[in-house]
Amino acid sequence: MTTTHDDIVLELSGVTLHNDLGDEELVHGVSFSLRRGGVIGIVGESGSGKSLTCRAILGLLPQYLEVSGGRIELFGRDAASLTPKEWTQVRGTRISAVFQDPASYLNPSIRVGKQVQEVLRVKRGLGRREAKARTLELFDAVQLRDPAYVYQQYTHELSGGMLQRVLIASAIALEPDILIADEATTALDVTVQAEILELLASLKESTGLSLIVVSHDLAVVAQLCDEVLVMKDGSVVEHGVTRDILENPQHEYSRLLISEHEQYGLERYLVEPIGEREFDYV
Ligand SMILES: Nc1ncnc2c1ncn2[C@@H]1O[C@H](COP(=O)(O)OP(=O)(O)OP(=O)(O)O)[C@@H](O)[C@H]1O
User: What positions does the domain ABC transporter occupy (predicted)?
Assistant: First the structure.
């Protein structure tokens, strides 16, 4: 398949991130392109720069951290030129994210359904009834059983996997083009983790969403992603097609990540693409 420039929804070229307080560069030249419907994985140990890279893409860096070099282009537009108001419009509607700890992104004293409904009311201007109907559809799309029942529950009544589904429903409510899943399955047990990954894959298929999947766990990335960036100490040490990296890693650190997984049989991801596979690796 040929990729034209119109297919590229996000492009990073040599992005460096600098901490003005500590006067140090934290991320040293990250480059990749994400095409419509594509899935890119960013893998690396804690502190390697994965989350900061995502925050930069989302325009959510703390004030003292800045993009000090390179360029982030979102939907053909230089992200540096976006005003705070434009960022607010872009986030949620065109690019959205889910993180590791879903409970902390939801209000414990408001029913979860209402919280998603509110996103649709405020950002899409839907009426109460329409927003509720759409929320129930979204809960169904993220495979929450009995959406009407979940709608009126509070966060403390839901499991980690259900909360992550609610958050994914909220993240896709405004039909964004890009979803960033930053360690979104890390806190979940392996079976639920597999279900959430399967959900992301099926949403990608049904909506044409582009995904950035961030994980310290190569197996998570290998399941979903066409392409992988391996990060270490703020640098991309390897970038390529997932299968090539798994079969023939060039960097010592990639080899180490792969060897850590040998006991789980990472090679299974080389033969069966997601969607054609039973998640039976618990
Ligand atoms: N707000 C911040 N202020 C200063 N330094 C930061 C800040 N956030 C992260 N860093 C530093 O930047 C580097 C990259 O951190 P980052 O959070 O991007 O790593 P990560 O790969 O996402 O790790 P993890 O998997 O633990 O989230 C680390 O050295 C970290 O200490």
Answer: 10-258
